[in-house]
């Protein structure tokens, strides 16, 4: 409505009895129902950023609080995850073809895919699970998918540790290229954030998404070359290029290039850069268009 | 009690709030599809229908009305949580609904919940840490603060919720049935905190079904009936008119 909305004092504005009376009549009333501008919105998100870190961190703690292994589960869980995949695909089905260090190859794919999968699953319910909060406190709703991404990223760190240890144990030696993994992880964070924003918006209005997601994610799992080398299994050049459209495949392939020195095609790098630049911005737009209807 | 001023803190003009609810279809599968298309299974609830109301400085407004008359919807509209169908709400600052309970985690200790609840309200971590002891003392939970919240009694939980929610007092405070919590000592402390808002020329809206409480702590009252303001004025008059409608109808005027 007008610009005054942007400088709207929050509900937590401290009350000072001294200066209120007298000047009060002059104080303007601003429209309380107008949506804030993008700038004001993002400033508010920044001011409240700690919410999106502390709350998911506390939730992670709470998750394993009443188990015997306690916080150790954050390490045991990814180790078991990789162990089961290795048993099924490395030993029983043998999809190792064309891969020197299959366990190392597998562990990188599995932990990265698992991170993406958990982010999407969490984002899909982050609005519906927090309806009570949404209905009682005014805050930028984007903090909820942001918290989902942050929480899963925090949970991913021990898994990353397990993956790196596995690589060392299977004979890989750190090279300077390992440092580039940091760039891939930043790209992954941005991509996850964009995906979370889109999924959160859709999940808030279409509850069926939660039923559909496991199937979509399983399809994506096979299309991302987590358990097999696309280079070795897919012979057609055109099909290989089609894989590059899949951002999760791009991320995993780039991470493997950093850590294992496996091949990476130019189309994969381009795909990754485009996805990570476009999706977060698109996600922000999509999410903001829907967020005022959440909870109503 | 401070006399209410004349300056307006919040102004509601012809506020309408509608929302859609999905109905639990009672019709069978065949009926749903027999019309050749899938029936839309939501209906529109006209919860607030043209409310015009001013809140003033140093005023506590009691909002009364039957269940489902739109009181809670009106409060959420004032916080900006519920989009309006039409009308305007203008104010000095954004009113805050008292309470943070939806964000609190049963598995975590009271202390950690103060941190989480405070962050949800927009405090920084440093601000919460600096007020931690004050909040714990206000809630009267010194001994239990490091125990998981699920071990608390409902009164203890309500005290914790209130203490966090009022750690910094908003200028315009909306309270939905929250005061009748805790023991006598806590009620006195919480009533004092509400008075602080008024003393600082803020406004309070209190939704309650406890008529004695409305008469005791409000200087004005409004009766909301099926989304429409029936009567606004002196608390005693509004309460008696509201109660009289029950005895004459036998039942509430609205659903």
List the topology elements.
The complex is a heterodimer of chains A (296) and B (255).
Chain A: H1 17-23, E1 30-31, H2 38-47, H3 51-63, H4 73-92, H5 102-125, H6 131-136, H7 143-169, H8 181-205, H9 209-223, H10 230-233, H11 237-243, H12 247-260, H13 266-291
Helix pairs in contact in A: 3-7, 4-5, 4-7, 5-7, 5-8, 5-9, 5-12, 7-8, 8-12, 8-13, 12-13
Chain B: E1 8-22, H1 29-34, E2 42-56, E3 59-64, H2 71-79, E4 86-91, E5 96-97, H3 110-120, H4 125-139, H5 154-165, E6 172-176, H6 184-199, E7 203-207, H7 211-217, E8 220-225, E9 228-233, H8 235-249
Parallel strand pairs in B: 3-7, 3-8, 5-6, 6-7
Antiparallel strand pairs in B: 1-2, 1-4, 8-9
Helix pairs in contact in B: 3-4, 3-5, 4-5
Main beta-sheet annotation of chain B: 6 strands, mixed
Order of helices and strands of chain B: EHEEHEEHHHEHEHEEH
Could you list the spans of chain A in which at least 5 consecutive residues all have pLDDT below 50? 1-26
Radius of gyration of chain B: 21 Å
Q: How do you describe this structure in short?
A:
Chain A is mainly α. Chain A contains 13 helices and one strand, in the order αβαααααααααααα. Chain B is α/β, with parallel strands linked by helices and 255 residues long.
Structural features, described:
The complex is a heterodimer of chains A (296) and B (255). Chain A is mainly α and 296 residues long. Chain A has one domain. Helix content of chain A is 67%, strand content 1%. The model of chain A is unreliable at 1-26 (pLDDT under 50). Chain B has 255 residues and is an alpha/beta fold. In chain B, the strands form two sheets. In chain B, strands 5-6-7-3-8-9 form a six-stranded mixed β-sheet, with helices on both faces. In chain B, strands 2-1-4 form a three-stranded antiparallel β-sheet, with helices on one face. In chain B, helix 6 links the parallel strand 6 (172-176) and strand 7 (203-207). In chain B, helix 3 (110-120) packs across helix 4 (125-139) and helix 3 (110-120) packs across helix 5. Chain B starts with 7 loop residues before the first strand and ends in a 6-residue tail after the last helix. Classes of the chains: A mainly alpha (296), B alpha/beta (255). Chains A and B meet through helix 1, strand 1, helix 3 and helix 6 of A and strand 1, helix 2, strand 4, strand 5 and helix 3 of B. Strand 1 (30-31) of chain A pairs antiparallel with strand 4 of chain B.
